[in-house]
Amino acid sequence: MRLVLLCFISFLFLNCQDKKTETKNTSKVVQNTSEEKEVPEKDSVIIPEREFPLLTDDNAMEFFLEYEKHNKENKVRITTQFGEIDVLLYDKTKFHRANFIFLTKQGYFDDTQFYRVVPNFIIQGGSTDDAKVKRKRKQIGEYLLPTDTKRGYKHDRGVLSMPSGAIENPHKLASPYQFFIVQKKDGAYHLDGDYTIFGKVIRGMDVVDEIAQQETDNAEWPLHNVYIKKVEIIE
Fold first, then answer.
1. In this predicted model, what pLDDT tens digit does every residue of 122-156 receive, in sequence order?
2. Within this chain, do residues 30 and 69 fall inside the same structural domain, yes or no?
3. How many domains, the chain?
4. Looking at the domain assignment, is residue 53 inside a domain?
5. pTM attached to this predicted model
6. Same domain? 74 vs 175
7. Would you state the pLDDT for residue 170?
8. Angle at which helices 60-70 and 94-105 cross, to 10°
9. Is 233 exposed, middle or buried (0-12, 13-18, 19+ CB in 10 A)?
């Protein structure tokens, strides 16, 4: 009888241990399942929308026509290692003004260069061989702007003008990412009618003159890079 009683007690004890072990294992499985559910699925990842459309030749003019109505700024400061150049952008050349303001607000010109320097003629900026800037251009879009040369402006010393987008470009459509400043004291009037003048230097022509004196290679690229540290809108 005592032996039977001992066997019965042992059976109850072992049975309780098994239930506890089973409960612990179940708890771990539930916890792991909960952790897995907290990981977001690919379909639930939110991709931010573009603030502006990818610009092309087909939509750029329509975009800037609307953009210039709400972005009336017309003064910018170009900061270089040689000093600051303040520029007034002309309201009459509204597409080119709007384009320059747009690119300034996108931070495009920051870390670009005055990559072409011709003493007693022009300094040309807005481009670079930096891959980061090239990626910026790709993100904004590839487009050209039509010339706007009948506003009465001349290529006087200190004016801001826009070069053609390509060598084989009979209509001399403007490259929106680049600009040049006339440094020649007597002006560069042979350029009139071919390139769009859209602003003028109002402070810092001494900086323009200093950049124009930098030594260049055979391709007119300064031997020591002349960086545009930043372009910003000013009052």
1. 999 998 888 999 899 999 999 999 999 999 999 99
2. no
3. 2
4. no
5. 0.77
6. yes
7. 55
8. 80
9. middle
